[in-house]
Amino acid sequence: xxxxxxxxxxxxxxxxxxxxxxxxxxxxxxxxxxxxxxxxxxxxxxxxxxxxxxxxxxxxxxxxxxxxxxxxxxxxxxxxxxxxxxxxxxxxxxxxxxxxxxxxxxxxxxxxxxxxxxxxxxxxxxxxxxxxxxxxxxxxxxxxxxxxxxxxxxxxxxxxxxxxxxxxxxxxxxxxxxxxxxxxxxxxxxxxxxxxxxxxxxxxxxxxxxxxxxxxxxxxxxxxxxxxxxxxxxxxxxxxxxxxxxxxxxxxxxxxxxxxxxxxxxxxxxxxxxxxxxxxxxxxxxxxxxxxxxxxxxxxxxxxxxxxxxxxxxxxxxxxxxxxxxxxxxxxxxxxxxxxxxxxxxxxxxxxxxxxxxxxxxxxxxxxxxxxxxxxxxxxxxxxxxxxxxxxxxxxxxxxxxxxxxxxxx
Amino acid sequence: xxxxxxxxxxxxxxxxxxxxxxxxxxxxxxxxxxxxxxxxxxxxxxxxxxxxxxxxxxxxxxxxxxxxxxxxxxxxxxxxxxxxxxxxxxxxxxxxxxxxxxxxxxxxxxxxxxxxxxxxxxxxxxxxxxxxxxxxxxxxxxxxxxxxxxxxxxxxxxxxxxxxxxxxxxxxxxxxxxxxxxxxxxxxxxxxxxxxxxxxxxxxxxxxxxxxxxxxxxxxxxxxxxxxxxxxxxxxxxxxxxxxxxxxxxxxxxxxxxxxxxxxxxxxxxxxxxxxxxxxxxxxxxxxxxxxxxxxxxxxxxxxxxxxxxxxxxxxxxxxxxxxxxxxxxxxxxxxxxxxxxxxxxxxxxxxxxx
Lengths: 410, 355
Prior knowledge:
The complex is a heterodimer. Residues 9-18 and 406-410 of chain A have low confidence and may be disordered. In chain A, helix 21 (279-310) runs antiparallel to helix 22 (316-335). In chain A, 60% of the residues lie in helices and 0% in strands. Chain A is mainly alpha-helical. The N and C termini of chain A lie far apart (89 Å). Chain A has helices at 2-16, 23-26, 28-34, 38-41, 47-50, 59-62, 78-86, 89-95, 103-109, 111-117, 126-130, 150-158, 161-165, 173-178, 181-187, 197-201, 214-219, 223-231, 233-241, 245-250, 279-310, 316-335, 341-399. The N and C termini of chain B lie far apart (86 Å). Chain B contains 14 helices and 2 strands. By secondary structure, chain B is mostly helical. A two-stranded antiparallel ribbon of chain B has the order 1-2. The chains are: A mainly alpha, B mainly alpha. Chains A and B meet through helix 23 of A and helix 4, strand 2 and helix 10 of B.
């Protein structure tokens, strides 16, 4: 019995004892960061990248070349080291069957990869974006490449004027992007599908989009706009000017919420090329008026319906119809990219009709509310009169001698 | 041709005696002529029983009207209520009155119950009247619970989910009880038709029987008088017309309040229930379930349900522990218990509403 107990305790102690990792004895900081690393979760240890034998506490053994010890990985060697696993489809399939395995190939097409290949160690490699010993999955909000953190990760280098000076690259992108409608969508609405740096520039193959491909890049999300723009006169004009399509009007990193003010009025983007009195300028003003009117009317309908709803009126059907009106407004905004008044008129007129319905429904509801209140006042007067009549009747009944005394009954 | 007969008088008399012979109207007249009720400083509290009854009658009338259009299926319930509120002439008023009257009825029933407690009207020989009254209050709350789901809107759907989850915390029978209420594993179409059945058939049938028993017992024992008047001569007034006219005045007051609420604050319909949508914030039941709802947030579900069970038993048996042997009423004990319960309900309802 004692023998069995001793055997059990020994076996338990052996199972509970952590596996020896002699690296941690000296490299405690890296070892601590590695506790959160996805590679550790999948069973990889320090030796998977650095080689050597972590099971030996003798540094001459654990860090011996005979044991394949590589020491600190040089910056130029990092991509190939990562790719030794990440480009191995068979190996990656064991951990994440849908994971791509062409990161190195893409990286070598990027400006980062090409410069690194030439020996420039100032450019980013895998660990600059993914971190070194605490690598997390992209979807982990603490990962430096999670959409909420990626702009700051890219900005770590690209917003650093001293670092970018030798590459002669502007450093305003990070600040501009943070003021954009795209970043607002990511950070305020929590829409992680909204664009961050990698969405337009690529991630592993990061490269600035060429002028000719700007509209195609924007068109990956803004499909309808891109289609209309491709058929418009502006495409050829902008191409002949050698400027990127969408960015001519919307800018690149600091893309603001678009509106009719972009079409007409002082400082509008159309007026940068079209004189207000020219044919193009007039069309721009008309398009701005249509879109602006539609928005104003929809806002008016919303306001009346909201007032009716706050008064307790049932206007949910009209409110639902307003959603269609808002869709028409979006379509009118989209149609602007055809730069054709007739294209904008169609959704704008549909939307205006819906807005008019909303205003009518709201006004009717408010009128009905007032009628109800008048009805209530009439009813309350009638009830008060009836109560006064009852009071008088009670007095009259009780004024009769002996009328209230009836002790015989129950 | 003979002398003209004073037709009106004769015809009315003939009609009255014809009806009297067949319906026994004379007996009713005789009964009303001799029925009297005690009149004293606390009489005003007695009107709340009548107001509760009046509001119940309004519920029946408006409920029947709503039945003409309401459709108890998940695909049509919300739309049918929306139709009632927007397309049916005065539909909004009927629905709003039905919803507000339900709440006022429960409020009036609670006031009636606490007035019975503080005036010690539960004492011998009115123990069964007390039981039937508590049963009616429970049924009024069951009406509210089942009716709340019927518009099939977002808040009702998720509140019913929470409530039926709580029912599963009843010891031993919790799970079967929750399944019985839901008509399945989760709140769905089965729950809606089931609640509709309870609301328009089962509960009205039981309520009618219990109400008749309650009224018969009130008639049999007469209205109670406060303890302080025991053994003293109490002034009596005729039930008809003296008390009836006063009660009628109270009913007018109730309907005026009801009209104001229905016209100025029409009962909202909200958004249609979407079982796949996440539960919206601030889901809470009707006000009369707020105190137990908030309590169950503070204590484990099973403990809370056992506690409420014991509290219910204690409250139902009040006429027994509230009266010593020899029929002496333990006024201080009962008043303290009533005050504690009332304080608990008020404070926890407020906390449940705001937290």
